[in-house]
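Ticket reopened. Same input as before:
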Amino acid sequence: MKIENLIQSGVISALKKLYSFEPEKNTVQLQNTRKDFIGDITLVVFPFLKYSKKRPEDTADEIGIYLEENIDEVKSYNVVKGFLNLEIADKYFISEVLNAWNNEYFGTEITSENQQELAMVEYSSPNTNKPLHLGHIRNNLLGFSISEILKANNYKVVKTNIVNDRGIHICKSMLAWQKWGNMETPETTGKKGDHLVGELYVEFNKHYKAETEELMKKGLTQKEAEDQAPSIQEARELLRKWESGDPEVVELWKTMNGWVYKGFDNTYKRLGVDFDKIYYESDTYLIGKEEVLRGLKEGIFYQKEDGSVWADLTNEGLDHKLLLRSDGTSVYMTQDIGTAKMRFNEYEIDKMIYVVGNEQNYHFQVLAILLNKLGYAWGKGLHHFSYGMVELPSGKMKSREGTVVDADELMDGMVKVAREMAQELGKLDSLSNEEAEKTYEMIALGALKYFILKVDPKKNMLFNPEESIDFNGNTGPFIQYTHARIKSVLRKASEKKLELNKEFDVYPGDITFKEKELLKRITLFPYVVKESGTNYSPAIIANYCYELAKEFNQFYHDHPILAESNEPLRNLRLLLSATVGKIIKTGMNLLGIEVPERM
RNA sequence: GGACUUGUAGCUUAAUUGGAUAGAGCACCUGACUACGGAUCAGGAGGUUGGGGGUUCGAGUCCCUCCAAGUUCACCA
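Engineering reply: fixed in the latest deploy. New output:
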């Protein structure tokens, strides 16, 4: 039985006996004892004072005596103000860690498959008119990681990507190619397809902006000018042709999207993210349109004189929302309605999770309401995993102005730094070229991923391209290094035939403070995995991995392992090392980060 | 203007969801390998948790009110 449960019921019977009072389970507040005090688990006694009618110190004292007498694992206790600190016997933690080591899936156990709920996680969801940038990286890493974390929390997960392959933005790039593209292709230029299309998008905006300014000089307001500029008119014409199936336009659209997909695949692969099911908006938007028209017929929505269709959300405290343009074409919301319907038809989804930036909080609030109005009970159950923006020192990234940190360039830069650093330290000289390159890549991506995932997803984060991402301190490479070092010790142990004996008995002697800290930290891992799942926060796992690695390094520094002559103690330290190594690997993998055997 | 979110050391951030003296990393200063890996470890300095009020035995955390920043309220996605 877990010590927390043991103590909890011990406290309940203590209160019954001492004060004839039976508390609710959740008023028994247990927490890990702070490091500056002696003890392992702390009970907060303030809530019980009105029943004990005694000073906090005396109340804690009485409960402490009871627990010490009645629970074997409670070795001693001390009282500081209203806090009852309980010291737990070493052997309890050692046997827990032994279990952790012997359990292959420690912290990530799952029940039988038919007991699992299905979670669909939508993430990435790029537009096909520009390459991926740092903002997308945060999205992809969060989406992939939360999927892994949900799996570890007993969910069956379908990772999905909805590709924004249609709409006015693509038409802008298409128009730019027709007018100023010089028939360039990825093959003729050697450029990555998504980058080529992205350049065209910027090109469009350059012309568009110039035209707008020209019109404004002639006295038009900004809004009028933006509406009447020839470029945007032509782009709209392309969109209309596309929606009516014009073969030439559709052909160009297919070709250019093809370029982009090839580029994206490349980037996804390098980032280490993948998808089980990909949806394309060109396949789902018509379903959305049907749903909106059905809603119109049933009086859920209304039509204006110009033919546009709207939803009145004023009863919900929101505005009127456009669902179909006056020319009959669909908008973002229409498409998302269609996509949602399609997904729920194809899968028995228990939980639908959208990994989308917080700038779309309003959108998802509206989507849930609209689906509900359309009669889908699951509409209310959607979960918008809303994360903060990545900002540059100069402010927000803007694709159309080209002020973005490109995903591919960023990764290249990180690998370069990792390579230089490793070569300077002479770390990987014994490895083959190929293995060394693989390791640089692993470290570079570890640094990047950890940098992004350690931050609470809800918060906006700042990225300064001038200062490269660190490799020392609270970083991915720090944790990777700890893992590599543990592996090195274990390799040497096996060379010396000091292999970890799985049957090893609980160490009989006294252990040091640091050893106990490590033991305790290890037993927390399953709770951390659970917490990161319920809070949708990979950051919780990232921070735990850091604390664990840090504590191991401190332990490692002044505790000999292989050189320890006391065999049971040596075994305990090997057990600690091996278990920490295993948890680091598991934890980092939940973040989508690989850990090297040597670095 | 309405709605929502966020303000913690110079910078990047944590705080067991209301608990003890707010904990780390970077940068800065000082120290530690004849050792199982120095991408490490030990130490120093750095804080009125945006300001003010309130609730509570107890507030970075909850409530009110100012201040600041961001997002959104588009026939863009």
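The longest helix of chain A spans residues 193-217. The longest strand of chain A covers residues 155-163. Please confirm and we'll close it.
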